[in-house]
Amino acid sequence: MTTNKTYHIITIGCQMNKSDSERIASYLxxxxxQESSEKEADLVVITTCGVRQSAENRIYGIIPKxxxxxxxxxxxxxxxxxxxxDVKKRIGEKVDIWLPVKELEKLKALLENCEDxxxxxxIYNSKYKTNDDYLKLKxxxxxxxxxxxxxxxxCDNFCTYCVxxxxxxxxxYRSAEEILEEVKILVKKGYKEIALIxxxxxxxxxxxxxxINTNDADCESKKVINFSKLLQMVNDxxxxxxxxxxxxxxxxxxxxxIETIASRKKICHHIHLPAQAGDDDVLHxxxxxxxxxxxxxxxKKIKDRMPDVALTTDIIVGFPGExxxxxxxxxxxxxxxxxxxxxxAQYSPRPxxxxxxxxxxxxxxxxxRREEELMEVLRRTAAGNNKKYIGKKxxxxxxxxxxxxxxxxxxxxxxxVEIINPENIGRNLIGEFVAVKIEKADDFGxxxxxxx
Length: 452
Hints:
By secondary structure, the chain is an alpha/beta fold.
């Protein structure tokens, strides 16, 4: 492999994609590549997202721009769109290597072919084997204080709107030993925040072939480590750090897991629990495998056990066949739960999914109106939640400076906090825990002063 070549990675989408890009960066640097800007790089890797049409559309603008500014650049496309035949037909001649991320070990051979301006991606199906254990690769972390630690990859839920099971395959999980070793190394290096991530963290099990559900009563006798037990083990690692996780599926949110989050000191009281809709019929057509009543029951249990919890969610508006009355059920859900944040998406048909067979019968303007109605409720409930922080003291992890030059951090409950007394700070606080008294609050942010 020729050394002293350069690379640049563009990441679109979720935390898992960001984590994948960190491993790709490490892999390339082990081959002798050096990181560079996108305009000057010999190789540009695009980690793609296909969950929404808007995310997919980004690559159709990015790739021609890259080729125009640097005609000799080699482009690798990985992520959710790497296996989509319709995407290959549209931009196939502009992409040099199509690389499903779990086949990362093939990249060395593909790059060697590309050195002679010839990239033969057909070797995917012949000479080189697939390695599903790419998560064993040591990543090049983008942060020196906050790290994504993937605990698994893939999804077995097959929600009718979602491409992830097709793009990433079935669920496969890392051993608890391997995860704990990665966390211990990070904590020893001084990392303050560990984020355990997977498509569905709370379906984690140490042996993917043993159990289907983390609630299985036989879990203990079969010596399976479920997500609750994994969290307990990470919590017991010595060090000054806190633990986040994403994303949870409501069907797998057990009483045991709620109790673990509530009772362990290092686990943040922020739970992202995607509802997707507030109507049972819509949930059924989405294949979500829970009801509105079950979801609200979980919310009650969580709030009863953790009164200080921050709750966030994902919602799809305008799912095929969603009536105005059914949407109103989602709006009522927002009023009842009082979310701190919600990621609201207008439904877009995704190739390969079951919902593609449904008629996309909600007009774009109506989807937009529904999104705006939910945002109006969200701003009000989030502002009300944030006002409760005023006058109280919180531990904050500082993670950046904003455009005004003020430090910005996050509470345990993932609230953004701007530090408004920087004149009293004589050092760089990024990556440090500080104590802050909250003095101001708006709908999606807080402001306060460092008190020690």
